[in-house]
Design goal:
With 105 residues, the protein is of the alpha+beta class. The chain has one domain (3-103). It has helices spanning 42-50, 76-81, 87-91; strands at 3-10, 13-20, 25-30, 33-38, 57-65, 71-73, 96-103. Strand 2 and strand 3 form a beta hairpin. The longest helix has 9 residues, at 42-50. It is globular.
């Protein structure tokens, strides 16, 4: 059984990420295709989807959820560090998040 971990609006569609607490893996869908992967930095997954290095990505509108339905605006340091955090950093704390990602260039 998986739990929803993130919804990220990318320039060409929605990246939806679930976490499997038993296998400690992610399952994500993007552009109608599903992928299963190991826990890794969030930026690595996003750059794989977009084909651009994480250094070219800009995070905006980051909100996290410690309880379903109660969004909390992320502080600047959380937004700044999102791409270098692992998926498990959020999953282990039972947190989910939503944000948008655009290209800096």
């Amino acid at each position: 059984m998986t739990q929803q971990l993130a919804q990220i609006q990318l320039p060409k569609g929605l990246l939806d990420v679930d976490w499997n607490p038993y296998t400690k893996t992610i399952y994500y869908t993007y552009n109608g295709k599903g992928y299963t992967g190991q826990d890794e930095e969030i930026g690595v997954t996003i750059q794989r989807c977009l084909g651009f290095p994480a250094s070219d990505l800009y995070i905006s509108d980051l909100h996290y959820f410690e309880h379903p339905g109660h969004a909390i605006a992320a502080p600047p340091e959380m937004q700044r560090d999102l791409l270098i955090c692992n998926w498990s950093d959020y999953a282990i704390d039972n947190m989910a998040f939503q944000c948008a990602v655009d290209l800096k260039i």
